[in-house]
Amino acid sequence: MTVLKRVLIGLILLSSVAFWLCIVRIFRFESYVTYGLISLFIAIGLTLVLFRGHKYEIDRKWSILLIPFAISSVIIPYPYNTGFILLAIGFFLVAILPRVSLWLGFAVSGLIFTVQAAGMSIYHLVIPSGHSAVLMSYLAYPLLKIFGFVTSFHGGTIFIQKGGDVFPFPTTWDTLGVYPFVLLFLPVLTYLLLTSETFNNAVRRAAGFLALSLIYLLVRYVVLINIFFSGDLGTEALRKFAEIFFSSLWMFVTFIPFVVLLLLIYTFGAEIEFPQFKIEKRYAMIFLALFVSAFLLCGSVFFKEQGTQKQGRVLVDEIHSAWEPSSLILDKYWYGSESTYNAYSMIEWFKVAYDVDRVMSPAYLDWVPGETISKVDPDVVSEEITSEILQNYDILILKTPTMYTEREVAAIVDFINNGGGLFVIGDHSNFCGTSTALNQITGQFGITFEFDSVNNATGRLSLYERGEITHLCAKYMPRFDFLTSCSIKAPAAVGRVIPGYGLSAEPGEYASTGFFRETRRDLPVLATDRNWGIFHQCVAAECGKGRIVAFADSTTISNFRIFFGGSDQMAIGSMEYLNYSNKYSYVPKILALFGIILAGVGLFLFGDIEKKKRIGVFMVVVCVMGLGSSLSVAAFAPKVYDTIPAKYYDWETTVCFDGDHSSEIVSSGEREGEYNVFLIWTQRVGRVPTIEYSLKECVEKGKTIVIVDPVTKNFSYEDIELLKEHVKKGGNVLMMVDSSNVLGLNLIAEFGLEIEEIRKPQDATEEGPLLPWGPSAKGGEALKKVGERVILARVSYGDGYFVLCTVSNAFRDGFRGQPGYMGYNGTDPYALSEDEKEITLEIYNLEYELFEEILV
What we know:
By secondary structure, this protein is of the alpha/beta class. Among the domains are: 310-503 and 539-581, 3-Layer(aba) Sandwich (Rossmann fold); 649-854, 3-Layer(aba) Sandwich (Rossmann fold).
């Protein structure tokens, strides 16, 4: 092989790796799309150059492979379909230009990307279930000593002394660089297997290649540790550690020597021959075995039986819920952070669709809360959770609990195995011992809440965005905003409800109040003992006849967050999933077993094919396995939705906030919402808020629709007619504005209202949320005036009302008009100064009046 061809092959491999490093989000949340596409085009272009002038004429009948490749490229989501797209292009060119080598460049580059996509899929399944590479720690430890490091070793963690500090290095597959390694290993391994003379020779070559690869990973790891300790660390240690071990650029650069090494050791032939298109009986057996194998193996991952629906009887454990209880009522009289930092609203909302009871300890009956606090009446009173109690229920909810007795653990485990559903909700870093308590039960099924706190790689709150293929629990949840979870360790076969990516898992700091490292975050020694990449933050599992959903961020189910940020969508999807028992929980295991057997049969038969025929047969193998996988995805992957069905809402008490036309109502990701408290406070008067991005969904779900500061787009004719019909049939619409120059004036006019501006007198000095100047409603029934200014006007239309509020600024979050007067979700007006208390209570009471007396 010429030097030029070796260089081209090396650049093709590196370009393909660069594509995946840029496009797939493993160690960061965002994708580098532009760089990824450039890398893709470079890889394709170099492959075309490599096979330019190839003289072999392919049988035009091979173009039949275009059809299954095209099907696979449509069903399999991007970017994992990239290889199939290239293969489809290649075999399209076979149909029209069989004598031109152009098709071969696309076909070979398509094979590379397809093999890499298969490796990435396996990586995504396996890595969240186990980041630790303990065995590799044993091998890395002596190497570090050879390099002159002062080290010690314990429990799989290497401790390195540098200066006066000791740095812990728990070796993980991520720090070893397994992610880019897989992208290089699989296409090279495939080539070695295709070009080996015999099956035994292929096994020997594969074993040698694997040994060489492991040595390189270890040496690379030790070299990177050397680089990390070079220079002054200081407060930049964490940034430096993240960059060296997890940035796309460093991963790419540090595997260039590996590619060079491969090119020096192995001879990669660029000559490819395709046999005449002829399906022999033996080939047909291989294709059929591998097609069915791919279908079954993918099916074992995606198959989730609907199961047998249960009665929806739910028991909430309040005996052990020392954190996030649901036993205190959120109302108009009890304020402060404790009033919103509990799960009362979520449990009450579940009662719309489920028969929900709370089990309390006898001590609860005698407990007297504060004078402004009301407690719920217990449905079941018991010292502990027993089998006798559980036999009356279908779903059990455990929220950040205290420890359980052995009898309780046994009762709950039996409950699950016999068909019960268990919804367990934990939190970060074993806060208040909640992970320890939950692991007593979930650990029986291989699921453990880790003692860490998980945020994104930059230390900020993480965001999850659902892909095209997801779990049943997430089918209503397009995205989820976290408020710091722990990670969950679970078997690889578990249902991946939220596999968070671009994350950093930091060990708990038990000397601090919140178990976070906020007091010591800048210490260099705290940079190296964390995990990075993909982590389970919510999993689901079928266990016997029953089911478990384990979720790791209890803060998001609190009263101040349950109805936005994806929390409600996650919760109701989980409850729906848990209200079914399993009839065929053994099916995925059977599918996997037969899939593995058939894969072994197919590979064994493939190993004895003549070397010159292997590339053609392998192309068909990729084709049939891709088609099998695609059909499995189409058959078993659940349908996804962008919102919760209306059946989970009581139309009379639901308040739908129009997210399609309104300004930013609540905080999401990096965006700050302006009306968080206003939305949360609707719960204090027995309402259930929801944010919908379709007026049609608003009309179906709730009697009251709230439109706040419409600034995104105007209302179409269809929008207006839909809202008019809604009001006519007994619904209500509340339009909130703070200016006469807003979108939506056409909607206001349809109900006979308009907005006029009352000018501020030059000598006016008055301040506050409700002033006699500013936008004023004109028309309808004036419900509330400040001087001559009408700040609330109502129009009766059919059986419902259209209400216009012209002081939306008063209902924004903040104090003293900065930017509003509602405070924040933990505000207690009775703890404020007299002036602030008076203003705050005036605004609160105005909101309560809106929903209790005006919008009726």
